[in-house]
Design brief:
Layout: E1 5-10, H1 17-32, E2 37-42, H2 45-50, E3 58-61, E4 64-68, H3 74-80
Length: about 80
Amino acid sequence: MEAKNNITVLSPGKGCWKTKKIIGYIERFLSKYRIKSEITVETDIKQFFKYRTWILPTIIINGKIVARGYKPSEKKLFETLKK
């Protein structure tokens, strides 16, 4: 059984161009390396407080903040994701 990853992207809104760009990058990465994952876009301000961030979009993988406001490297994604 393969491990399932949970990726949450904290975003100011689902229409944010930067959020869309980062999600596209992550989806291509996951497809390329055949890694199972679920991506959720979170716009609730309570989540911003929970993770203590105002730098958006923020990428959270399996409960750990991976990047704030920028696209994480493939190396960083590999280190954080469950294979």
